[in-house]
Backbone:
């Protein structure tokens, strides 16, 4: 569920001083936490419970009555009870008629029941106005006041007036109601708290898959090959050298995969001559998780930076440097400065620094607190123009690292090229296709298509 696509109702809170009494069925964790918050916000609260005995856990300004008595005192009744216990509500049907019932319930599994809990409640007690709300807010957050992460309250219901009353309460509690439409949306709202990183699954699995592939690839080339042919034990490469090879490779491929769907979408639109036909589902899903792909890529790039920082203090690096100095001293030779090599090395580092800085900037601008403060054009400038520039810098960084090693036969062990060469395939494809797409003969029709022009309109103008 994409939170950003919801319609945030920015209406002013109900400012009248007199708050209507709110009834809560159930004195469990959630009922008590919500009751406490409602009382703090100035609402008289009455609890409907199986036991009318009050306890120290129940907010002291609240009344505890039987369900029937409590229901008669309020127009809005919040059902803070698990769905499996709803059946007793049928006996209160007459008292509840015409009242607003707020279903806050969650399930243990996604799509656990054929219909949503809110729809079930509406069927069970006909003549009531059922509104789904509050299920994404936890009792703990309500009680501790740490509502920063869960300030949004998804609300849905078939009765506009009832929904509006509930949204007024949500606002009065300092939360943000997000109108999701009719009660048909309740199932999706109930599934929402049960989703496990929905947008992150693909990027994380993909990055783990790539990391595992390149780990074994590098193990074969850099550890097993020298062991078999030169009897050298480079198994310690597993700790730093191989991870430091995998991280930039995965980061670069993932960064290219952020921009590949945009390029594919452009080709599809050019081919179809319209923007009004749906992309294939896989492309839609891929587009939706580009931000997450980019952030996972940034995490790998960050690890690469950390691994690179420790290279000078590695025992292997110190041994290699001192060995080189020693062998030159023994031969009584000095090595003249290779300016071409110095240029290559400095350019490689400079491109890496520039690429990582822009990458970091992209990551920061994707944070909601930052992206909310830039307009659409600024956001597109950073994510698209600077994004491509980042891809160019990072690809160039890798190309310069390779230098002319592409041509050296020693780069191919068991016919396997160096892993960084494989990492260049996707970025180079994306950059070449993007370069072709900015030619006016393709860019102009694409811009017109994106403005609504159709090559073969279905209906004559
Ligand atoms: P809870 O602590 O188990 O409380 C449920 C309450 O339901 C009980 O205290 C009891 O109140 C009442 N109840 C239990 N069995 C009943 C029965 N057979 N007949 C009538 N009433 C019965 O659960 P909770 O954590 O407060 O959750 C309540 C609802 O809020 C659930 O639907 C849950 O999915 C939803 N929710 C909870 C949270 C959370 O963070 N806990 C967050 C969002 C939504 P009395 O003893 O007063 O009758």
Residues:
């Amino acid at each position: 569920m994409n939170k950003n696509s919801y319609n945030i109702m920015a209406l002013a809170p109900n400012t009248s001083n007199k708050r209507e009494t709110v009834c809560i069925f159930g004195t469990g964790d959630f009922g008590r936490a919500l009751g406490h918050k409602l009382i703090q916000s100035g609402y008289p609260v009455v609890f409907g419970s199986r036991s009318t005995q009050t306890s120290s856990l129940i907010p002291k300004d609240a009344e505890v009555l039987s369900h029937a008595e409590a229901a008669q005192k309020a127009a809005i009744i919040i059902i803070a009870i698990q769905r499996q216990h709803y059946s007793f509500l049928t006996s209160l049907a007459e008292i509840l008629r015409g009242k607003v019932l707020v279903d806050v319930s969650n399930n243990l599994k996604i799509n656990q029941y054929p219909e949503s809990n809110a729809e079930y409640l509406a069927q069970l007690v006909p003549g009531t106005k059922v509104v789904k709300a509050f299920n994404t807010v936890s009792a703990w957050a309500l009680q501790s006041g740490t509502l920063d992460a869960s300030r949004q309250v998804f609300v849905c219901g078939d009765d506009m007036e009832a929904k509006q009353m509930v949204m007024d309460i949500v606002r009065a509690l300092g939360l943000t109601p997000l109108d999701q439409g009719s009660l048909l949306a309740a199932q999706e709202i109930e599934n929402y708290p049960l989703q496990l990183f929905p947008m992150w699954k693909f990027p994380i699995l993909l990055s783990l898959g790539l990391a595992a592939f390149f780990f074994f690839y590098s193990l074969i080339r850099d550890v097993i090959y020298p062991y078999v042919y030169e009897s050298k034990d480079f198994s310690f490469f597993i700790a730093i050298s191989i991870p430091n090879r995998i991280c930039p490779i995965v980061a670069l491929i993932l960064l290219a995969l952020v921009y590949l769907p945009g390029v594919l979408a452009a080709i599809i639109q050019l081919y179809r001559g319209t923007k009004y036909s749906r992309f294939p589902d896989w492309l839609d899903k891929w587009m939706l998780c580009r931000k997450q792909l980019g952030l996972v890529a940034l995490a790998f790039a960050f690890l690469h930076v950390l691994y690179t920082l420790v290279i000078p203090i590695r025992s292997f690096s110190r041994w290699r440097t001192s060995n080189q100095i020693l062998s030159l001293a023994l031969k009584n030779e000095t090595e003249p400065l290779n300016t071409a090599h110095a240029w290559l090395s400095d350019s490689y580092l400079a491109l890496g620094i520039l690429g990582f800085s822009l990458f970091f900037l992209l990551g920061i601008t994707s944070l909601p607190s930052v992206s909310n403060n830039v307009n659409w054009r600024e956001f597109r400038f950073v994510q698209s123009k600077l994004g491509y520039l980042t891809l160019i810098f990072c690809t160039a960084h890798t190309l310069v690292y390779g230098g002319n090693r592409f041509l050296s036969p020693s780069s191919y062990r068991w016919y396997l090229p160096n892993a960084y060469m494989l990492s260049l395939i996707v970025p180079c494809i994306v950059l070449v296709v993007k370069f072709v797409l900015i030619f006016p003969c393709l860019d102009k029709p694409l811009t017109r298509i994106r403005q609504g022009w159709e090559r073969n309109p279905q209906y004559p103008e």
About this structure: Residues 22-194 form a domain with the Rossmann fold fold (CATH 3.40.50.720).
